[in-house]
Amino acid sequence: MSRVGRLPVGIPSGVDVKISGSHVRIKGPKGELEFTFSPEISIEVKDNEIQVSRPSDAREMRSLHGTTRALIQNMVTGVTDGFQKELQLVGVGYRANMSGSSLELNVGYSHPVVVAPPQNVTFEVGERNQQIIISGIDKQVVGQIAADIRKIRPPEPYKGKGIRYKDEYIRRKAGKAGKVA
């Protein structure tokens, strides 16, 4: 039995769960998420908890069991608390500004790069326009937007300039040694 899959997902107060077949809809104070899982995996609500079970011990069923439970847990956490990622801009003249709900980045290009937020995702700029906070209810979307923003100017190994995750370690290279006279 999967160690992750056999754990029940607790339903906090204020969260409404509707399951029809393999389609799960979870509504909470921050919003609503829905997803259609594999029809082989059975999902049911018992005693204010969501139970996920699998029909057999086949390799595919074992992998789907833990994944399904983890995705449901992320959905419940998203509609109650939400998720957030923090990015830092490192470099002279690198800054982020808000223009309406969109994020405008000045990261060394000849033009500012504008990133529009998808549905249920918000951007915040903090700490001298050098920090970007991405928050939303869907963990996958928040992580993907953070990765897309980081991809605009990834950190380079010589000076460390670029967009990086908060507390990300950038392995530095020495560069040229220079001529000795």
What does this protein structure show overall?
- This protein has helices at 59-80, 139-152; strands at residues 9-10, 16-20, 23-27, 32-36, 42-46, 49-53, 83-90, 95-99, 102-106, 113-115, 121-126, 131-136, 162-165.
- With 181 residues, it is of the alpha+beta class.
- It folds into two domains: 9-80, Alpha-Beta Complex (Outer Surface Protein A, domain 3), CATH 3.90.930; 83-165, Alpha-Beta Complex (Outer Surface Protein A, domain 3).
- β11 (121-126) and β12 form a beta hairpin.
- The chain is elongated.
- The model has no long low-confidence stretch (mean pLDDT 92).
Q: Pick out the low-confidence regions.
A: none
Number of helices: 2
What is the strand arrangement across the widest sheet?
A: 11-12-7-13
Structural class: alpha+beta
Query: How much β-strand is present in the residues?
Result: 35-45%
Give the rounded overall mean pLDDT.
Answer: 92
Characterize the main sheet: 4 strands, antiparallel
Total number of strands: 13
Give the overall form: elongated
CATH class of the largest domain: Alpha Beta
The Rg value, from CA coordinates, equals: 21 Å
- The CATH homologous superfamily name of the largest domain equals Ribosomal protein L6
The helix/strand series, from N terminus to C terminus, equals EEEEEEHEEEEEEHE
In a few lines, what is going on in this structure?
By secondary structure, the protein is α+β, with helices and mostly antiparallel strands. It folds into 2 domains: 72 residues, Ribosomal protein L6 (Outer Surface Protein A, domain 3); 83 residues, Outer Surface Protein A, domain 3. The strands form 4 sheets. The protein has a 4-stranded antiparallel sheet with strand order 11-12-7-13, with helices on one face. Strands 1-6-5 form a 3-stranded antiparallel sheet. It has a 3-stranded antiparallel sheet with strand order 2-3-4, with helices on one face.
